[in-house]
Write a structure and sequence with these properties.
560 residues; five-stranded parallel β-sheet
């Protein structure tokens, strides 16, 4: 703005002196040229404020000055100057005609000021900059909700002048919207539509695609698994998420399917459709019953949505398989507690249980799975369920990479952090999301949900920036906004700030909220189109794998 004011003053003196010499400013007194020069200085300040925000060419600077000349003539010469001299602005054609010389002078002065400003800024920006100290380097490990949220927050802080060099390392190059995984498994959504490239989600962050083998906390180095390369850091953010947890149950890890990734969801859908193809041709009633029995372990959000979506997928495509009766497919949910959905109130959990039972879904409550084979699932009640599909959603544990860290760990090797998200016994290490145990103000732990991970990512970026400025980090505080679970058949259950919703209204809220939270307009449009097509057309039954002619062609998790 100072450079612009100088350019405006110089151009104003030149043009004002020329106009005064021709008697065009006589109506403004003896010092009309000085008034014009002061007016031009203000125009120059505005030019510096608007045009000088980023480098531009001479045409942009000249056009900006020309536009400001028109606006300045309208505001000052046509409107304010008559008031200053005791008159009244009329904004008529006659008034504008009388001020035609001032209009020509304003246009000429603005254009000249723009050209001078461009030359001055080019010389100013061309001066050698003083050497800057390298920006502090922050490394984020994990490309989930927490890691990407932290990276995006650092990008905003950089725009505000907090210089931080951020590198995000992840073994997946996409951000997965996990609340919609069950719909991918049922064929209601395309797999790519609920994922967004990390490079696009955090476009100004350096991204490294690879797996981390460990962290050398003493030397502040992150070691990559494939190349052995070491990436240095000044502050480290761990957001590596969680993996399925199988508590030493015989055969479960080898024979159960999980639902943690896009590959898991696609694999589950392919398995269900392949089993329907086999069952449609199977003559043995016992084998048909086994092929059409689907067991899900875990009565939380993931398990409940999985069994509901599997039910919808199977019954929506049964008309393609005339040999299978509508009562033949069997769905069983095994849960160790006496009620499903512990994240919801008892009333909503009872509503969900009633809705699913009314469709024929069986429940084994207060029962645990103790083992599995390629053909059976064993329960601690003594029951053995013959099945070809066993889905495990009954437990997760933090990423095993955390076991290489020297600091204090919590349940299942989670990183223990204080309320500012800083890890205990590890200097300049922070942890967020599923891999961390984060205490609340009351001493409990924050739940490992996406909405918490996103807020934790923003909070850890703000706290690291505060530490770099020599300030104290702030404790993380967040209250759950709401939770929803889809129950299939266009029904859902959930609550927002303690207010319960159920049925169709909850289902519409569930879809609307999650659609709004999807990263990027493109993904929202694609998911919305998938939902519209799902209503208008039958679900796709294409199986891309080989024919399932033998049990060996239907591998469990351990055979992948």
């Amino acid at each position: 703005m100072l450079i612009g004011m100088g350019c405006g003053l110089v151009s104003g003196l030149a043009v004002g002196g020329l106009m005064a010499g021709q008697g065009l400013l006589a109506s403004h007194g003896t010092f009309g040229w000085a008034v014009f020069a002061l007016y031009a200085a203000v125009i120059g300040q505005l030019l510096g404020a608007f045009v000088g925000r980023r480098p531009s060419g001479p045409a942009v600077s000249a056009a900006g000055g020309l536009l400001l000349g028109v606006l300045g003539w309208t505001v000052w010469w046509l409107s304010l100057d008559p008031l200053v001299r005791g008159g009244t602005p009329t904004w008529t054609v006659d008034a504008a005609t009388a001020l035609y010389p001032e209009l020509v002078g304003s246009l000429l002065q603005g254009t000249l000021a723009g050209m001078l400003f461009h030359l001055a800024m080019r010389g100013f920006r061309g001066r050698p900059d003083k050497p800057k100290a390298p920006a502090p380097r922050v490394v984020i490990v994990g490309g989930g909700f927490g890691g990407v949220s932290a990276a995006r927050r650092f990008e905003r802080l950089n725009l505000r002048g907090h210089r931080v060099d951020v590198t995000l390392i992840s073994d997946s190059n996409y951000l997965l919207f996990t609340p919609m995984l069950a719909e991918v498994a049922s064929g209601g959504l395309e797999a790519q539509h609920i994922s967004s490239p990390v490079r696009a989600a955090a476009s100004h962050t350096r991204f490294r695609y690879g797996r981390v083998a460990g962290v050398d906390v003493a030397r502040r180095r992150v070691v990559l698994e494939a190349s052995g390369e070491q990436v240095g850091y000044e502050h480290l953010v761990l957001a590596v998420g969680s993996v399925p947890f199988f508590p030493d149950l015989p055969g479960v890890a080898e024979n159960a399917l999980t639902l943690k990734s896009l590959g898991d969801a696609v694999r589950l859908r392919e398995r269900v459709l392949a089993l329907l193809e086999r069952a449609d041709q199977e003559a043995d009633p016992a084998e048909r019953r086994r092929l059409l029995t689907f067991v899900v372990a875990g009565g939380g959000f993931a398990g409940t949505e999985s069994v509901a979506e599997l039910y919808d997928l199977t019954h929506d495509v049964l008309h393609f398989y005339p040999a299978i009766g509508p009562d033949e497919p069997r769905f069983v949910l095994v849960h160790s507690d006496q009620r499903i959905l512990p994240e919801l109130s008892e009333r909503l959990a009872a509503y969900a249980l009633e809705k699913l039972r009314s469709r024929g879904i069986e429940f084994r409550l207060g029962v645990r799975a103790t083992g599995a084979t390629g053909r059976t699932v064993h329960l601690d009640s003594g029951e053995v369920i013959e099945t070809a599909t066993f889905v495990w959603t009954a437990g997760n544990q933090p990423n095993p990479m955390l076991r290489t860290l020297p600091g204090e760990t919590g349940r299942r090797d989670a990183v223990l952090v204080d309320r500012t998200l800083r890890a205990f016994e590890m200097d300049r290490v922070w942890a967020i999301g599923d891999c961390a145990q984060i205490p609340t103000e009351g001493g409990a732990l924050y739940p490992p949900t996406a909405q918490h991970a996103m807020r934790e990512g923003k909070a850890v970026a703000d706290n690291i920036a505060a530490v770099l400025r020599g300030q104290r980090p702030r404790p993380f505080r967040f209250t759950t906004i709401g939770t929803f679970v889809a129950l299939g058949h266009r029904t859902a259950a959930g609550e927002i700030r303690g207010r319960p919703f159920s049925g169709l209204s909850a289902w519409l809220l569930w879809r609307g909220i999650y659609l709004a939270k999807l990263p990027g307009v493109e993904r929202r449009v694609r998911v919305l189109l998938d939902w519209v097509l799902d209503v208008a057309f039958p679900r796709d039954i294409v199986v891309t794998g080989p024919p399932a002619d033998a049990p060996a062609a239907l591998p469990g998790r351990g055979a992948r």
